[in-house]
Amino acid sequence: MKKRIFLLVGLVFVMALLSGCTEINQPITSESEGFWNEYIVYPLSLFIIKVAEIAGGSYGLSIIIVTIIIRLVILPLMIKQTKSSKAMQAIQPEMQKLREKYSSKDQKTQQKLQQETMALFQKHGVNPLAGCFPLVVQMPILIGFYHAITRTREIANHNFLWFDLGSPDPIYLLPVIAGVTTFIQQKMMMAGTEHTGQMAAQMKMMLYLMPIMIVIFAINFPAALSLYWVVGNIFMIIQTYFIKGPDLKAAAAGNAGGAKK
């Protein structure tokens, strides 16, 4: 688990460097230089502009359409990541038994624990890093799309529904919806998974902390980003419902049974 956490932290750090955080306020154009700008951010920015032209000049509608398209493109990766997480969750009881059996911290015992753990993975056909690979592929696309929205100046000059895309939502409705949908999406993702002790406390903290952070960011960021988050979250909620349907029904049945008691 620690190795996976370090790997994820490392991936986020690398992606932060690749995303060129110092260029967030610089407009993206065909003249922008660098691999990140030329091959990821600018093509996505151009895609938004072209879709807006097809959609009658509506950049808000374009953001919605492009967000859905991108989510559909990475959907197979999301399914793979979810299946990998479920497979790891399924063998957690057996892994816990191994940890208890080889609880000694001496080198020989720990080597035996690693061997038994790898044998357990092979027995069930589980790759502990399989859930990380889809994340590696998704991150450049999602961060690149984030940059494309913030750095495409045409977006800032248009409005959609009741808000200007280049300014924060004046009535804070989008930030609230972004926070609520983030909470729902995380709650659905956690359905069917069992955590105890410190891990359970951390998961619960993230369940409430992430929506609050999204609301704070959305209040201060351009409404175009809030729109992107809301559409992405709604897509994820629908996606999670179909991928984790049995888990969600089991969790709902368990809650209903607990309430009756």
UniProtKB/TrEMBL annotation:
<dbReference type="InterPro" id="IPR001708">
    <property type="entry name" value="YidC/ALB3/OXA1/COX18"/>
</dbReference>
<dbReference type="Pfam" id="PF02096">
    <property type="entry name" value="60KD_IMP"/>
</dbReference>
<feature type="transmembrane region" description="Helical">
    <location>
        <begin position="128"/>
        <end position="149"/>
    </location>
</feature>
<keyword id="KW-0732">Signal</keyword>
<keyword id="KW-0653">Protein transport</keyword>
<feature type="transmembrane region" description="Helical">
    <location>
        <begin position="169"/>
        <end position="185"/>
    </location>
</feature>
<keyword id="KW-0143">Chaperone</keyword>
<keyword id="KW-0812">Transmembrane</keyword>
<dbReference type="GO" id="GO:0032977">
    <property type="term" value="F:membrane insertase activity"/>
</dbReference>
<keyword id="KW-0449">Lipoprotein</keyword>
<dbReference type="InterPro" id="IPR047196">
    <property type="entry name" value="YidC_ALB_C"/>
</dbReference>
<dbReference type="GO" id="GO:0051205">
    <property type="term" value="P:protein insertion into membrane"/>
</dbReference>
<keyword id="KW-0472">Membrane</keyword>
<feature type="transmembrane region" description="Helical">
    <location>
        <begin position="206"/>
        <end position="231"/>
    </location>
</feature>
<comment type="similarity">
    <text>Belongs to the OXA1/ALB3/YidC family. Type 2 subfamily.</text>
</comment>
<dbReference type="InterPro" id="IPR023060">
    <property type="entry name" value="YidC/YidC1/YidC2_Firmicutes"/>
</dbReference>
<dbReference type="GO" id="GO:0015031">
    <property type="term" value="P:protein transport"/>
</dbReference>
<comment type="function">
    <text>Required for the insertion and/or proper folding and/or complex formation of integral membrane proteins into the membrane. Involved in integration of membrane proteins that insert both dependently and independently of the Sec translocase complex, as well as at least some lipoproteins.</text>
</comment>
<keyword id="KW-0564">Palmitate</keyword>
<dbReference type="InterPro" id="IPR028055">
    <property type="entry name" value="YidC/Oxa/ALB_C"/>
</dbReference>
<feature type="domain" description="Membrane insertase YidC/Oxa/ALB C-terminal">
    <location>
        <begin position="59"/>
        <end position="244"/>
    </location>
</feature>
<feature type="transmembrane region" description="Helical">
    <location>
        <begin position="59"/>
        <end position="79"/>
    </location>
</feature>
<dbReference type="GO" id="GO:0005886">
    <property type="term" value="C:plasma membrane"/>
</dbReference>
<keyword id="KW-1133">Transmembrane helix</keyword>
<keyword id="KW-1003">Cell membrane</keyword>
<protein>
    <recommendedName>
        <fullName>Membrane protein insertase YidC</fullName>
    </recommendedName>
</protein>
<keyword id="KW-0813">Transport</keyword>
